[in-house]
Design goal:
The complex is a heterodimer of chains A (153) and B (426). By secondary structure, chain A is an alpha+beta fold. Chain A has one domain: Sufe protein. Chain: A (Alpha-Beta Complex). Helix content of chain A is 46%, strand content 18%. Chain A is built from five helices and three strands; from the N terminus they run ααβββααα. Chain A has a three-stranded antiparallel beta sheet with strand order 1-2-3, covered by helices on one side. In chain A, strand 1 and strand 2 form a beta hairpin. In chain A, helix 2 crosses helix 3, helix 3 crosses helix 5 and helix 4 runs antiparallel to helix 5. The longest helix of chain A has 26 residues. By secondary structure, chain B is α/β, with parallel strands linked by helices. Chain B has two domains: 157 residues, Aspartate Aminotransferase, domain 1 (Alpha-Beta Complex), CATH 3.90.1150; 260 residues, Aspartate Aminotransferase, domain 2 (3-Layer(aba) Sandwich), CATH 3.40.640. Helices cover 37% and strands 18% of the residues of chain B. Chain B is built from 14 helices and 19 strands. Classes of the chains: A alpha+beta (153), B alpha/beta (426). Chains A and B meet through helix 1 and helix 3 of A and helix 12 and helix 14 of B.
Chain lengths: 153, 426
């Protein structure tokens, strides 16, 4: 007996490898931006912290716990946006979300390694898991911006 | 009568074997394949499936009797009213109710518990039983439906909500309850079986202790009514809440059974048609029980189906079902405990149809997805019991739960699939 599609599509080796050794995992000293994403249904709870200088993401880390899909997706996300621009991080988030919600094809979205998560699309109950860290990223960037405006005013 | 009946074949009866194949044959939904594999439905604590007898009873009602009750002089309305009241009488027998008890139909356990918590605290039409300085005790094992309504009842009335905390193994103790009970305790609410772990608290003793302290007692019977024989008058229980869909009946129907003296203390949660004696533009007088607590058009077909489900259960026999689901739970526990890195919660709770477990380093959602790949249906997550999960420090869990139609083979498939999932994911 084998496990059919899920092990080959959903739990690709790259995904499991990120789940076993998540990148940029652990708390950050003095983040400039942070947000938490939770899914009360399953208990996933991810905190994303960033240090943003101007419009560049100098550092990004995450803490918390979640399923393999959630942890691997957040881990790959941190790799993809670290040392990049805030604008391109938000743009990548938009593309990733479009692929996951079936609005865009994975192969034309230029997702790189993140394409290994595209199989999640066929598991509607797991789409929340794959997007949780990305929602936290969006909130962290968005909400802290407002705080920054407040400070400069 | 044919060779095979609901009781099982003559061979089954002779050998006193549990007639699982005869039972399974009455559940068409179980015969299906999911992605080419035979469905193993092990999510019965969330909802059980319905036998054809229940579906036929509902269809028969809907196609020959359906009409609104208590409202018309025409023949169908009278027949429908009779069917509804017959269902009430049948469910009353199922729960052992006598003259001092009553049964109110609700949409299920959640509505029943809300009806009690609101009814004791609202003070509308009936004096409130809860006020400032009073105390409500709820166990820390509860489904959110037996916690959140009490949180609001406490806020509304000024009463204090006190929690009977389980130990770190998820068990509650009579000594702890004794310390909480006092002259100001007005209500004690407890589950008959924790839906998240399968732990069965000593509810008979605890309800008695609370009643002796002068409290009204509430039992959430959702996880028990399908297999445990709950003889309500034998318990010190003022209110019992239960759901049809966890006892092989239709969804969207259930009940609140209780002592009439206690039911009389409830302000109605739903105001509207059929629950009043008189209405003018300024005020209304409420009807007597049970109508007072049954505002709005009732789920009559559901009540008919639920009564049929009770008959289905009692044709097999609750002691037999109870023994069988406990045996399946024990088999699953023994199998799961052989898996490296896996911990079964409350393995000692042998009077249960529910087994929950956690695996080191592997999230239940991932286990659930790989089990679904093998057509094994289980529940994963917090099971609407977040405070208990937090208390246990286990995080979310995977839960398998058994019914009269489950087989040893399904249990063994569960164990094998969990083992394979952990090997793949760890």
């Amino acid at each position: 007996m084998n496990d059919g599609d899920a092990l080959t599509d959903l739990y690709q080796e790259l995904v499991l490898e990120h789940k076993r050794s998540p990148r940029n995992f652990g708390p950050m000293q003095a983040p400039s931006h942070e947000a938490r994403g939770t899914n009360p249904q399953c208990g996933d709870d991810i905190q994303v912290q960033l240090r943003i200088d101007g419009d560049r993401i100098d550092d990004i880390r995450f803490t918390g716990s979640g399923c393999a899909i959630c942890v691997a997706s957040t881990s790959m996300m941190t790799e993809a946006v670290k040392k990049g621009g805030v604008g391109s991080a938000l743009e990548l988030q938009e593309r990733f979300r479009a692929v996951m919600t079936g609005k865009r094809e994975a192969r034309e979205a230029g997702l790189g390694k993140l394409a290994s998560l595209a199989g999640v699309r066929r598991y509607p109950s797991r789409i929340k898991c794959v997007l949780l860290g990305w929602h936290a990223l969006g909130h962290a960037i968005g909400e802290a911006d407002k705080a920054g405006e407040g400070k400069s005013a | 009568m044919s060779e095979t009946s609901i009781h099982g074949s003559r061979a089954d009866v002779a050998a006193d074997r549990f007639p699982v194949e005869t039972i399974r044959a009455q559940f068409p939904i179980l015969a299906q394949q999911i992605r080419g594999r035979q469905l193993a439905y092990l999510d019965n604590a969330a909802t059980t499936q319905s036998p054809t007898a229940v579906m036929d009873a509902v269809r028969e009602f809907e196609s020959t009797i359906r009409a609104n009750i208590h409202r018309g002089v025409h023949t169908l309305s009278q027949q429908s009213t009779d069917a509804f009241e017959q269902a009430r009488a049948d469910m009353g027998r199922f729960l052992g109710l006598g003259d001092a008890h009553g049964l109110v139909f609700t949409s299920g356990t959640t509505e029943a518990l809300n009806t009690i918590a609101y009814g004791l605290s609202a003070g509308d039409g009936v004096p409130a039983s809860l006020g400032a300085g009073d105390e409500i005790i709820v166990s820390g094992l509860e489904h959110h439906a037996n916690l959140i309504p009490w949180q609001r009842a406490a806020r509304r009335s000024g009463a204090t909500l006190r929690i009977l905390l389980p130990d770190t193994a998820g068990r509650v103790h009579v000594e702890d309850l004794a310390k909480l009970l006092g002259p100001r305790t007005r209500v004690f609410a407890l589950t008959a079986c924790a839906n998240a772990t399968g732990y069965r608290p000593p509810y008979e003793t605890m309800l008695r202790m609370a009643a002796e302290a002068g409290a009204l007692t509430v039992l959430d019977g959702a996880q028990a009514v399908s297999h445990e024989t709950i003889d309500l008058p034998a318990l010190e229980c003022d209110f019992l809440a239960f759901s049809s869909h966890k006892m092989y009946g239709p969804m969207g129907i259930g009940g609140l059974a209780g002592r009439l003296s206690a039911l009389e203390r409830l302000s109605p949660l739903r105001l509207g048609g059929d629950m009043v004696d008189w209405v003018n533009l300024e005020d209304a007088g409420f009807a007597p029980l049970p109508s007072r607590l049954e505002g709005g058009t009732q789920n009559v077909g559901g009540a008919v189906g639920m009564a049929e489900a009770a008959r289905f259960i009692d044709r097999i026999g609750r002691p037999r079902i109870d023994a069988e689901v406990r045996r399946l739970r024990a088999r699953a526990t023994a199998g799961l405990e052989t898996i490296e890195g896996l911990t079964v919660l409350n393995p000692e709770s042998t009077e249960s149809a529910i087994v929950a477990f956690v695996a080191r380093g592997v999230h239940p959602h991932d286990i659930g997805t790989l089990l679904d790949e093998r057509a094994i249906a289980v529940r994963t997550g917090h099971h609407c019991a977040m405070p208990l999960m937090e208390r246990l420090g286990s995080g979310p869990t995977t839960r398998a739960s058994f019914a009269a139609y489950n087989t040893d083979d399904e249990v063994d498939r569960l164990v094998e699939a969990v083992d394979a999932a952990l090997r793949a994911l760890a």
